[in-house]
Amino acid sequence: MLAAMAYETLLTDLQDGIFTLTLHRPDRLNAFTSTMMDEYLHVLDEIDANDDVRVVVVTGSGRAFCAGADLGGGGETFVSEGDGASGAPTVPRDGGGRVTLRIFDCKKPLIAAINGPAVGVGITQTLPMDVRLASERAKMGFVFARRGIVPEACSSWFLPRVVGISKAMEWVATGRVFGAEEAHAAGLVSELLPHDELLPRARTLAAEIAENTSAVSVALSRQMLWKMLGADHPMEAHRIDSRGIDFMGRSPDAREGVESFLEKRPARFSMRASRDMPDYFPWWKERAFADGD
């Protein structure tokens, strides 16, 4: 079972359709490493393949959510090998970006329960998650300019779409750390909660999804909303809406959704996101990092 698999930097738990993914390097404030990246990518693949997982809650172990990149390597922390096996110059891929792009394409909704400090990749990894909740103890920071680098994890695309370009640029240009109240006021997080109420609220929201919705409807809807953020015209949405309504309208889940409503009973949806997606999914063109990748 996916929930029983052991990881070095992550804890996993699956109950009642809710998969809790806990970043687990508490002695390093859950700082991000290449091992964490590899394990994150692996568990996201497992989440998509496992129909028992309906929704994901991501949080941190101990007092932090994620303190950003592990700086234990000192001044060489951000140095990467730039040459491929052939000796030709290459641009190494940003690890945080690999994770956020995989989250972006995930079939399952993700809820970030930000329980403490989340800076650098600690906060940018949450941007493609669908809901961000924060403890009153949480602090955030897009601190890249203070470390002599630039925003990563595709945050130059995600952050302005979440909070607008002016607030995004203010946070990135100053690199300052700010509190959960400011994050809530700017819309970076949708709810600000007493610390002890954070995970219960995340699980209540997750249960609302897991218990009442069609897995295929949610998977399609998640990608429709995210992918349309980059659309040039509403006609693009109309085209994919029409395909989705046609496919789902003929499906057993649509029949069950209507009949359960008319009969005033809980719905029992039977379609599985791992096997019952329409043949046009994924409809967006796959984009490689570079020619030949």
Report on this structure.
This protein has 293 residues and is an alpha/beta fold. The chain folds into 2 domains: 2-71 and 91-209, 2-enoyl-CoA Hydratase, Chain A, domain 1, CATH 3.90.226; 214-293, Lyase 2-enoyl-coa Hydratase, Chain  A, domain 2 (Orthogonal Bundle). Helix content is 38%, strand content 13%. Helix 1 packs parallel to helix 2 (95-104) and helix 4 (155-163) packs across helix 5.
Any idea of the CATH class of the largest domain? Answer: Alpha Beta
Helical fraction equals 25-40%
N- and C-termini, Cα separation:
32 Å
CATH architectural type of the largest domain: Alpha-Beta Complex
Looking across the biggest beta sheet, what order are the strands in? Answer: 1-2-3-4-6-9
Instruction: Please tally the helical runs, counting DSSP H or I stretches of 4 or more residues.
Output: 10
Series of secondary-structure elements, N-terminal to C-terminal? EEHEHEEHEEHHEHEHHHH
Q: Write down how many β-strands occur, each being a DSSP E stretch of 2 or more residues.
A: 9
**Largest pleated sheet:** 6 strands, mixed
In CATH, the topology of the largest domain is named 2-enoyl-CoA Hydratase, Chain A, domain 1
Quickly give the structural class: alpha/beta
The total domain count is: 2
Roughly how many Å is the radius of gyration?
Answer: 20 Å
Structural shape: globular
On the 0 to 100 scale, the average pLDDT is 92
Assign the CATH superfamily of the largest domain.
2-enoyl-CoA Hydratase, Chain A, domain 1
Strand coverage percent: 5-15%
Low-confidence stretches: none
